[in-house]
Specification:
The chain has 304 residues and is α+β, with helices and mostly antiparallel strands. The chain has helices at residues 4-17, 66-78, 99-103, 114-127, 131-143, 152-161, 163-174, 182-194, 199-205, 207-210, 224-237, 243-249, 286-299; strands spanning 40-45, 50-54, 60-61, 196-197, 254-256, 261-266, 270-275. The chain is globular. It starts with a helix and ends in a 5-residue tail after the last helix. The structure holds glutamine.
């Protein structure tokens, strides 16, 4: 039997000694206020045991990690029709690149790059009565946690500096792949990215992807086929142009965000979340990637 607590502590100790060459994302000014040296890891086994180390109970902005949750809600609402508007291929490009979007007639490569997530936001706007409220309720239902909320300051900070996302949304609109107003879709998108969670809450939220669509309280939210597809998209697209590297080093489906969070999972076994806000040049947490590499190497638990 593995001593998970001891393993997490070993990883934490070793990474605290590592020179952190990552940089905090400052293109969203409000994110730049977070101390660089934070490091938290939380592990939740499918059997319900929990293990924590470091700053695992401090909340941070989940940013692009929210794209998996919005994808899950949209997939639940419209099923396979979703794939008419967004593809499922890795982009091999940074999360905010637009060149492929133009080459491919306004169909984003996948739902986890910004343009793809903006299309998903548009789908949710068209299908939810009170989009921001209903989406937040979905996240709260998955986690059974009413304390999870948007961070209005971060959403506003991104709105006033989000020129690249405005460009993406306008391009999508020009190609006829947005039904709602650019401003409304982006308002929803900036809010979903601003959601605050700690590492433990993230392992609760992503439990559904490790447990055939059932959340921590055993309620079925997605079919096992939907979960299989979402996990495949996380594995191939969850880390943008570093998805190959993450599969190679860690070997788990997962998702990163520019707030410094990463969540990953082994189907039928566990979910794990890390938070270390300084990012590598590809926009993924510098220490978080290493923490997860060490975890799957030490435990020999990966999908491969
Ligand atoms: N990779 C990320 O976390 C990016 C999300 C961020 N809100 C953006 O759109 O730029």
């Amino acid at each position: 039997m593995l001593n998970y607590q001891a393993i997490l502590e070993e990883i934490h100790t070793s990474l605290k000694k590592t020179k952190n060459t990552g940089e905090i994302a400052s293109y969203i000014p409000e994110l730049a206020n977070v101390p660089k040296n934070k490091l938290g890891i939380h592990l939740q086994l499918i059997t319900g045991e929990n293990y924590s180390v470091g700053d695992a109970s401090e909340k941070f902005s989940i940013q692009s990690i929210s794209k998996v949750l919005s994808l899950a809600k949209a997939f639940q609402l419209v099923g396979n029709d979703l794939w008419k508007r967004v593809d499922v291929e890795p982009s091999g490009n940074p999360f905010n690149h637009l060149s492929l979007l133009e080459l491919e007639d306004g169909i984003p490569r996948n739902p986890l790059i910004n343009s793809g997530a903006i299309v998903i936001a548009d789908v949710l706007l068209s299908h939810l009565k009170n989009p921001k409220e209903d989406f937040l309720n979905f996240v709260r239902e998955l986690t059974h946690d009413e304390t999870i909320s948007y961070n209005e300051k971060i959403a506003e900070s991104e709105r006033v500096t989000g020129f690249n996302n405005y460009a993406a949304a306008n391009l999508l609109k020009a190609y006829g792949n947005l039904q709602n107003k650019v401003e409304d879709v982006l308002d929803f998108y900036f809010h979903q990215c601003s959601i605050m969670m700690d590492c433990r809450q993230l392992t609760n939220a992503f439990f559904v992807f490790a447990h055939k669509g059932k959340c921590i309280k055993d309620v079925q939210h997605l079919t096992s086929s939907q979960v299989k597809r979402i996990n495949a998209i996380m594995l191939t697209c969850g880390f943008y142009d570093e998805a190959g590297e993450f599969a190679f080093e860690v070997g788990l489906p997962g998702k990163s965000g520019v707030g410094g969070g990463i969540v990953a999972l082994l189907p039928h076994c566990f979910t794990i979340a890390t938070w270390a806000p300084a990012l590598n040049p590809k926009g993924n947490s510098f220490l978080g990637m290493q923490a997860l590499e060490q975890f799957t190497t030490k435990t020999k638990l990966s999908i491969f």
